[in-house]
Design a protein that fits this description.
mainly alpha; globular
C-alpha cells in the first residue's frame, strides 16, 4: 500500500496520530502519579472503549446483549480499581488524590488509544499513529527537558529495531 499517495486520509490520519500521541502524554504524566501496574490496568480499558466506539460510530458494528454484559463487567472492574485507589491510596504517589489523578490519566490514555484506532482507515492507522506521535512526543521531551541520553543499552536498540521492523513493518 502506498503511504504517500493522495487519498484524502490526511485529516483523519493527523487526528489519529494526535490522539495516539496524547495517549503517551497521559502515560508519561500518569506514571509519576500512580504505580505502573495500575496504569497498565487502566490503559487496557482501550478495547472496551473501542467496542463502544465501533457500536456508536460504525454502521454494522453492533454489540450483542452478551457483549454489552462483558463491557459492563469490565467497567465494574475498573470502578472497583478506582474505589480501591480512593480507599487505600497509592503508596508510591504520596497521596490519594495524586494516585487518583494518575489512574484517571491511565483511563484517558485508554480512551485516546481507542479513539486513535477509530479515527483513520485501518490500513494507514499505524503509519499515522507513529509518524504524528513521534513529533508530539519529541516536543514533549523538549518541553520537559528530557533530551539528554547518557548511554543506550544494546537491548534498547534491539527492542526498537524489533518494534520498527517486525511490529510496524512486517506485520502490516
Amino acid at each position: 500500500m502506498p503511504l504517500f499517495q493522495r487519498d484524502d486520509t490526511l485529516p483523519a490520519g493527523l487526528l489519529a496520530g494526535l490522539l495516539f500521541g496524547s495517549e503517551f502524554v497521559c502515560i508519561f504524566f500518569g506514571l509519576s502519579l500512580t504505580m505502573a501496574t495500575r496504569m497498565a490496568v487502566f490503559l487496557y480499558t482501550a478495547p472496551c472503549f473501542t467496542a463502544l466506539g465501533l457500536h456508536w460510530f460504525v454502521a454494522g458494528e453492533r454489540l450483542s446483549r452478551a457483549e454489552w454484559c462483558g463491557i459492563a463487567v469490565a467497567f465494574c472492574g475498573m470502578a472497583l480499581a478506582f474505589a480501591d485507589g480512593f480507599l487505600r491510596g497509592n503508596p508510591n504517589s504520596g497521596s490519594t488524590m495524586r494516585g487518583i489523578a494518575g489512574d484517571t490519566l491511565g483511563v484517558m490514555a485508554g480512551l485516546f488509544w481507542a479513539a486513535s484506532s477509530l479515527a483513520a482507515s485501518a490500513s494507514k492507522t499505524l503509519f499515522y499513529q507513529l509518524a504524528v506521535s513521534a513529533v508530539v512526543l519529541l516536543a514533549l521531551a523538549f518541553g520537559v527537558g528530557q533530551t539528554h541520553v547518557d548511554t543506550v543499552a544494546p537491548i534498547a536498540i534491539a527492542s526498537l529495531a524489533y518494534q520498527a521492523i517486525v511490529v510496524a513493518f512486517v506485520s502490516i
